[in-house]
């Protein structure tokens, strides 16, 4: 399974001989992978985990792990952090200020900050705030005190909480995608994190031209091209293949790129295909290579 990662350093879950999934850094050029140490948590009681990787201003890569454990009586999510470029050991860090969502599309790391959507029921726990996103500073290894509000979608026919929310990193910005699962998507960029300024990039009101059932589709933005075209991964019900497509806001048309079966996740890699780069530096730093 591919994690939400920087475009030059994929982080994946790969199966091992003992049938467990292990976290690894993948080199798309050679296919080699570097194993990360296991997270030291109570495997008998932890039933869900979310991993995020980001690059801080020093150039170091850090991995954030959040887990849900039934053994924690107050219902908090446990949080650990690991420096890939440093001691490569998991360290305890503070719990999120409120419960965050644990899905693959519910968080994104941008410019050394990990952003996560709050669960709807826990947004009200942050008193005096209408924030929907919390932020973890990977460089300081601390949660930022203020939550971030999100913009109101232009479709006023449905309450904001009735839309799917997806976070992603696009063009160096935190991106928020609204979609109603049928015929509406809207993409916003957080252009100024300090002032919490959002800018609407495009609104899609054309029905996705792919069959779906039940709750409809989920859209995942992968890449925004220089000419404004948007690369989107369309997640559908298990009966259908997922579709990688390109939407052109000028012509309001979709173009198929490929289909992938079995709910296969996708991602974008922008590193060099000539070798070296971030993976080579980490390997030189002493991570263990798995044959």
TrEMBL record:
Q: Name one Pfam family in it.
A: FBA_3
Q: Where is the F-box associated beta-propeller type domain?
A: 16-257
Q: Which SUPFAM superfamilies match?
A: Galactose oxidase, central domain
Q: What is this protein called?
A: F-box associated beta-propeller type 3 domain-containing protein
**Gene3D superfamilies xref list:** Kelch-type beta propeller (2.120.10.80)
Phylogenetic lineage: Eukaryota, Viridiplantae, Streptophyta, Embryophyta, Tracheophyta
This protein's species is Triticum aestivum (Wheat)
Q: Which domain of life is it from?
A: Eukaryota
């Amino acid at each position: 399974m591919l994690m939400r990662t920087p475009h030059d350093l994929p982080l994946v879950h790969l199966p091992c001989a003992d049938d467990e999934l292990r976290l690894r850094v993948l080199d798309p050029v050679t296919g080699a992978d570097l194993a990360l140490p296991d997270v030291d948590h109570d495997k008998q009681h932890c039933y869900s985990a979310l991993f995020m990787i980001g690059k801080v201003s020093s150039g170091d890569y850090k991995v954030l792990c959040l887990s849900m454990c039934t053994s924690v009586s107050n219902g908090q999510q446990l949080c650990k952090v690991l420096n890939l470029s440093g001691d490569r050991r998991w360290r305890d860090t503070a719990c999120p200020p409120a419960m965050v969502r644990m899905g693959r599309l519910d968080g994104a790391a941008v410019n050394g900050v990990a952003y996560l959507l709050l669960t709807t029921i826990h947004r009200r726990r942050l008193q005096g705030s209408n924030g929907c996103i919390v932020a973890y500073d990977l460089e300081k290894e601390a949660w930022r005190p203020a939550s971030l509000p999100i913009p109101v979608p232009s479709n006023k026919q449905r309450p904001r909480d009735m839309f799917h929310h997806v976070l992603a990193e696009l063009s160096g910005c935190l991106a928020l995608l609204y979609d109603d699962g049928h015929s509406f998507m809207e993409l916003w960029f957080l252009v100024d994190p300090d002032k919490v300024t959002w800018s609407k990039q495009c609104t899609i009101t054309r029905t996705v031209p792919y069959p779906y059932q039940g709750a409809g589709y989920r859209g995942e933005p992968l890449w925004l091209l220089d000419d404004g075209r948007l690369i989107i991964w369309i997640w559908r019900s298990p009966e259908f293949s997922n579709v990688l497509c390109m939407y052109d806001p000028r012509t309001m048309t979709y173009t198929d790129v490929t289909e992938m079966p079995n709910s296969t996740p996708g991602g974008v890699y922008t590193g060099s295909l000539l070798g070296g780069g971030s993976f080579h530096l980490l390997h030189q730093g002493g991570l263990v290579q798995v044959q």
